[in-house]
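Input (structure):
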């Protein structure tokens, strides 16, 4: 699922919640936590765009199927689902693309195969681990919710990322980056506590 740099596309961003220090993101096919404020942040960031544009979320089939049916597709965003078993189709009524290759999807957009309701402002990669680990070299911006937990949190899925190749930006730059749209999303450098977990939002750019 590589993406040719010669193919024109809107900015592509990874957004993920990960447990430090090893960047754990899942257990038995599900998230190891349910953080209400973090879910709201994810929704606000991935939907926030100028009024004349729309964002798209890119996910693998397992991530798609892990979303409760009543919440699918993710509203007010184009949903792009990737799986080798798909035949490159578009459900126009629900705004869902089913593709087996991200590069082919971008090419089809560029050739005008689809009439979108609005131009795409940003692509957000939202999981799962295979997409995160495969496409990390194709993005320049990471939005990571840095999760901490003092208890024994079961994790069996991790990100294979080397963050030494990235620079964490100050909160002011995070705020500027996520607010390039019509919604004012408030963030600061403080930890948020929910149950046994605490977390804060971070923005990384490639060195």
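Output (sequence):
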């Amino acid at each position: 699922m590589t993406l040719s740099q010669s193919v024109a596309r809107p900015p592509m961003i990874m957004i993920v919640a990960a447990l430090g220090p090893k960047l754990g993101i899942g257990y038995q096919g599900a998230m190891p936590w349910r953080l209400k404020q973090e879910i709201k942040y994810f929704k606000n960031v991935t939907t926030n765009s100028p009024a004349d544009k729309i964002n798209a979320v890119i996910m693998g089939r397992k991530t798609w199927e892990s979303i409760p049916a009543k919440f699918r597709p993710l509203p007010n965003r184009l949903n792009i689902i990737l799986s080798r078993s798909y035949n490159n189709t578009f459900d126009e009524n629900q705004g869902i693309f089913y593709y087996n290759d991200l590069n082919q999807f971008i090419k089809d957009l560029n050739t005008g195969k689809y009439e979108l309701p609005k131009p795409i402002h940003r692509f957000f990669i939202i999981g799962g681990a295979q997409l995160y680990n495969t496409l990390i070299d194709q993005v320049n911006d990471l939005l990571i919710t840095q999760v901490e937990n003092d208890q024994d949190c079961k994790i069996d899925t991790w990100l294979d990322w080397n963050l030494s190749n990235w620079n964490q930006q100050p909160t002011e730059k995070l705020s500027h980056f996520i607010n390039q749209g019509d919604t004012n999303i408030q963030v600061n450098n403080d930890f948020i506590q929910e149950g046994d977990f605490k977390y804060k939002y971070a923005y990384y750019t490639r060195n």
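Notes: The first strand starts at residue 12 and ends at 19. The radius of gyration is 17 Å.
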